[in-house]
């Protein structure tokens, strides 16, 4: 028996999930390893599925990019209880053994920007949206604003194993300047409001606070109170605040590269003031012009100075490139996407690209469509700069926005991050190690990443050779439960059935 090497491998792999001190990880795994080898699988109430051994697998260490060939991973009660080279562990006969020769094991993926309950009045149902993520290898989502009553229920039922879906962290409603939909939004008018709602939401049990575009004073009230209470704030850079100010105020993540185009403009101050006026006057034409001027006055040195602030403040970025790309192509997109069968029948007309481009002013306006494409190219260049500046990145999609398909769009996002200049490992980290590091600051995050949780993906090919290989899913392991390719296909067929029935 050659035990020492297995110890090293265990630590390396485990670090992908947890940020425990290395010693603690060693102790956890050292104890658990003997356990896995010597005892029969638990049949207590906590174990609703048999203990599992995945053998002959290539482990992908998402921290270093090392591939550890011919390993066995033992999973029980939702946790990884043993990792070693093949032959080190004596596998108990009561284990379900999966021979994974030629397969690659990675941590399950997280989509760090979704809206599970949508932003429209009618949310997708749990039997459609939740399995769609899981069947595509997404074991966790950071919801970015929605109906908290519903989200809370789903969050609990997923963790109790009552429904099939990804782990959920959620801020509940957005904090914004106005209230569009009372289930999803809270209007925050002043600093006092900001403080009050942070306290109220924390008491209601949200995982973090989401800001959309509250007024300036309200925004700083929110950030100040959140800091005092140790709550994370994530979201857009509000209209009346600069990207540098948001970063310096301690906003933990910035979504959709919001505020960055303006922050990298040589005319930032002047355009910011013009924008505030245009918003107050609801002057759409002026806003469009300001956007174009921000784009035209872009300065690479100014961008780099801003990115340096992000890096120093530890401000994460969720570029949601797939959303920008989808928007930029909407005018020419076909409605015939094969994944449309997973969209509830009632929502399909809203997803019609022709209708969306009309609603967003792109149809019949080649200049608007051209600008969207130029913007997309600029965003990819910005992401490349972020990578070079070591600004931490998160993979997120904004699904289910029209034509941004829950689950599968995360793989598109990873590909777009790679196209922007991240290598495959860096792209993969944006959906694995990055989310673990980001969410580890929150109590619920720690329960998902605190130690050896068995949320894993088994792939047919090496994702480090080509990031598109994350789509080649052989199996998903969620909370220790094994879903084979066949199980996942059945899950998808059930989703399509449910979606079709919802008129
Ligand atoms: Zn969003």
3D architecture notes:
This protein has helices at 3-15, 22-38, 126-135, 148-159, 191-204, 216-229, 243-249, 260-263, 268-280, 284-296, 300-313, 321-329, 348-351, 353-359, 366-388, 408-420, 424-429, 433-439, 443-449, 485-501, and strands at residues 52-60, 67-76, 79-85, 96-99, 104-107, 109-114, 138-143, 167-169, 174-176, 185-187, 209-211, 233-235, 253-255, 316-318, 456-459, 473-478, 481-484. Strands 1, 2, 3, 4, 5, 15, 16 and 17 form an eight-stranded mixed beta sheet that branches. It is built from 20 helices and 17 strands. The chain folds into three domains: 3-108 and 455-492, Urease, subunit C, domain 1 (Roll); 109-170 and 319-448, TIM Barrel; 175-264 and 299-312, Amidohydrolase (Rossmann fold, 3-Layer(aba) Sandwich), CATH 3.40.50. By secondary structure, the chain is α/β, with parallel strands linked by helices. The radius of gyration is 23 Å and the shape is globular. Zinc ion binds at residues 113, 115, 144, 398.
- For the record, give the distance between the C-alpha atoms at the N and C termini, rounded to a whole number: 61 Å
Shape, per Cα inertia axes: globular
**Tally of individual domains:** 3
* Heterogens: zinc ion
């Amino acid at each position: 028996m050659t035990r020492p090497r297995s110890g090293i491998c265990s630590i390396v792999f485990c670090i992908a999930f947890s940020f425990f001190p290395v010693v603690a990880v060693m102790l956890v795994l050292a104890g658990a390893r003997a356990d896995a080898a010597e005892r029969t699988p638990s049949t207590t109430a906590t174990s609703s599925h048999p203990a599992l051994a995945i053998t002959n697998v290539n482990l992908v260490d998402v921290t270093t990019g090392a591939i550890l060939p011919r390993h066995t991973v033992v999973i029980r009660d939702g946790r990884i209880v043993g990792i070693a080279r093949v032959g080190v562990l004596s596998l108990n006969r009561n284990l379900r053994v999966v021979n994974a020769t030629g397969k690659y094991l990675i941590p399950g993926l997280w989509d760090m920007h979704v809206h599970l309950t949508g932003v429209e009045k009618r949310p997708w149902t749990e039997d459609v949206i939740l399995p769609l993520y899981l069947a595509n290898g997404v074991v966790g989502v950071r919801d970015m604003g929605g109906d908290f009553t519903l989200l809370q229920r789903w969050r609990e039922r997923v963790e109790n194993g009552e429904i099939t879906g990804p782990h959920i962290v959620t801020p509940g409603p957005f904090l914004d300047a106005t209230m569009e939909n009372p289930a999803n939004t809270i209007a925050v008018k002043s600093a006092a409001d900001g403080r009050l709602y942070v306290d109220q939401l924390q008491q209601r049990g949200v995982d973090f606070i989401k800001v959309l575009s509250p007024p300036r004073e309200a925004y700083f009230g929110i950030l100040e109170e959140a800091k005092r209470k140790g709550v994370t704030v994530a979201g857009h850079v509000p209209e009346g605040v600069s990207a540098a100010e948001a970063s310096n105020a301690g906003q933990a993540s910035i979504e959709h590269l919001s505020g960055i185009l303006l922050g990298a403009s040589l005319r930032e101050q002047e355009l910011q003031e013009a924008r505030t006026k245009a918003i107050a006057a609801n002057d759409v034409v002026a806003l469009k012009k300001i956007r174009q001027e921000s784009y035209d006055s872009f300065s690479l040195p100014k961008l780099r100075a801003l990115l340096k602030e992000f890096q120093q403040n530890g401000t994460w970025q969720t570029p949601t490139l797939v959303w920008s790309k989808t928007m930029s192509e909407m005018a020419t997109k076909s409605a015939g996407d094969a994944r449309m069968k997973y969209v509830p029948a009632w929502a399909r007309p809203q997803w019609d690209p022709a209708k969306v481009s009309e609603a967003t002013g792109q149809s019949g306006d080649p200049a608007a469509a051209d600008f969207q494409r130029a913007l997309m190219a600029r965003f990819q260049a910005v992401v490349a700069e972020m990578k070079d500046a070591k600004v931490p990145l998160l993979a997120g999609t904004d699904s289910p926005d029209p034509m941004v398909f829950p689950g599968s769009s995360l793989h598109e996002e990873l590909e777009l991050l790679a196209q922007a200049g991240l290598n495959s490992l860096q792209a993969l980290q944006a959906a694995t190690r990055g989310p673990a590091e980001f969410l580890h600051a929150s109590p619920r995050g720690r329960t998902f990443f605190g130690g050896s949780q068995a949320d894993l993906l088994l792939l047919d090919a090496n994702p480090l050779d080509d990031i598109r290989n994350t789509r080649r899913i052989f199996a998903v392991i969620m909370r220790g439960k094994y879903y084979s390719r066949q199980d996942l296909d059945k899950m998808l067929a059930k989703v399509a059935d449910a979606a079709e029935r919802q008129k």
